[in-house]
From TrEMBL:
This is ParA family protein. InterPro entries: AAA_dom, DNA_Partitioning_ATPase, P-loop_NTPase. It comes from Marinobacter koreensis. Residues 3-178 form the AAA domain. Pfam families: AAA_31. Coiled coil: none annotated.
Length: 264
């Protein structure tokens, strides 16, 4: 049964989407079955996976509003090997439509429950704010993976995020765990990076991944080709770093490889 991981940070531009697309591709490369869920109305994970967000027949909107099932909405991204539940601006409309519904926080969880057996990992790309779409992601998730830049304000942002996680635990999802903290756009030549890194290790211990993601131009270029770095430039430092992260995650979970997808 899939482990459901929300990739979240209320701060924008920290590498949430880059992490989702590249981790999804790297986990697929290690023969894990992966579903990537784009819950951000910006649709960056969708475009970055090579799917045109402006030409979707079905999207996360249809799932959240119960017009379609995840299995009907998910697209197999052949180039990268994972499945994608795409999203675009319609997700904002779903948020508005859900406002007056009972159980509005749990729509995504109930929908994903039906496909959990088909995957090893379900990754959810979250928008950079705490709205109903994010709450749906955090309600559906077993854990949160937090990408962050090692900069001066990072720890402040992290305190806000821990606060959010606590609130979610007290309300919609008591079982929500911290999956791990991922240092992105990492530059070991910068002494502030090393200071922040040391503080992270002090507070979060082994929740901080040993794998770090360097600043790497290939990671920034690949989305414009609709590809994960692994398919755009396999030998790039960015691609290699995300493979290392996938390896570390899989070892932590001890998940077994699964062969061909199970027919349902
Ligand atoms: P978020 O989803 O948190 O807003 P993104 O993943 O979209 O963040 O990243 C923000 C910008 O930084 C994007 O233009 C992306 O291509 C770029 N970027 C992300 N990670 C890296 C990295 N490790 N090296 C270089 N550029 C990166
Ligand atoms: Mg994003």
């Amino acid at each position: 049964m899939a482990r459901v991981i929300a990739v979240t940070n209320q701060k924008g531009g920290v590498g949430k989407t880059t992490t989702c697309v590249n981790l999804a591709a790297s986990l697929s490369a290690t023969k894990r079955r992966v579903l990537l869920v784009d819950m951000d109305p910006q649709g960056n994970a969708t475009m970055g996976s090579g799917v045109d967000k402006n030409a979707l027949e079905l999207s996360g909107y249809d799932v959240l509003t119960k017009r379609a099932e995840v299995a009907d909405v998910a697209i197999t991204v052949d180039t990268a090997g994972f499945d994608l539940m795409p999203g675009n601006g319609d997700l904002t409309a779903a948020e508005v439509e859900l406002m007056n519904e009972i159980g509005r926080e749990h729509r995504l969880r109930l929908a994903l429950n039906k496909v959990r057996d088909n995957y090893d990992y379900i990754l959810i790309d979250c928008p950079p704010s705490l709205n109903l779409l994010t709450v749906n992601a955090l309600s559906a998730a077993d854990s949160v993976l937090i990408p962050m830049q090692c900069e001066y304000y990072a720890l402040e942002g992290l305190a806000a995020l821990m606060n959010t996680v606590e609130q979610i635990q007290e309300t919609v999802n008591p079982d929500l765990q911290i999956e791990g903290l991922l240092r992105t756009m990492y530059d070991p030549r910068n002494s502030l990076t090393l200071d922040v890194s040391a503080q992270l290790a002090e507070y979060f211990g082994d929740k901080v991944y040993r794998a770090v993601i360097p600043r790497n131009v290939r990671l920034a270029e690949a989305p414009s080709y609709g590809l994960p770095a692994l398919k755009y430039d396999r030998a790039s430092k960015g691609a290699v770093a995300y493979l290392a992260l996938a390896g570390e995650m899989v070892r932590r979970h001890g998940t077994k490889k699964t062969s061909a997808p199970v027919a349902v």
